Amino acid sequence: MRRLILFDGECNFCDASVQFIIKRDPKTLFKFTSLQSDSGIDMLKKFGVSEKTDSIVLIEGDNYFTESTAALKIARNLTGLWKLCYIFIVVPKPLRDIVYRFVAKNRYKWFGKKDACMLPSAEQRKRFL
């Protein structure tokens, strides 16, 4: 199954999250593109997600997920104890998303914005659209 993560390419926290996922995804289940890239914008349009979305977007096959659901579905596929985070899927989405939105709203203030994109290694470049 194709799994694509769309992330905020300007956000330090989001960049660190992508690096975190890459290190815990030895089967290379996930590919990545930024929300601001041409391929990211194309995917948002294809799936009917607003280009103004302020959320990580996970595309799995023909479905997409945002906010806490996307984060938990990603965690479910990582190595180590991160899989256990998926247990929080039983918490009602509106409650989970309150926490997600609080972090998302403050991420630039807490972690800053990038002036330039990271330079992925040759191996990592294969995972980006």
Q: Which range best describes the helical content: under 10%, 10-25%, 25-40%, 40-55%, 55-70% or over 70%?
A: 40-55%
Q: Number of domains in the coordinates?
A: 1
Binned strand content:
5-15%
Give the tally of β-strands: 4
In spatial order, strands of the major sheet run: 2-1-3-4
Gap from first CA to last CA: 16 Å
The quaternary state of the protein chains shown equals single chain
**H and E string:** EHEHEEHHH
Unreliable stretches (pLDDT < 50, length at least 5) are none
Question: What is the rounded Rg?
Answer: 14 Å
Protein name: Thiol-disulfide oxidoreductase DCC family protein
Organism: Solibacillus faecavium
InterPro entries: DCC1-like (IPR007263), DCC_oxidoreductase (IPR052927)
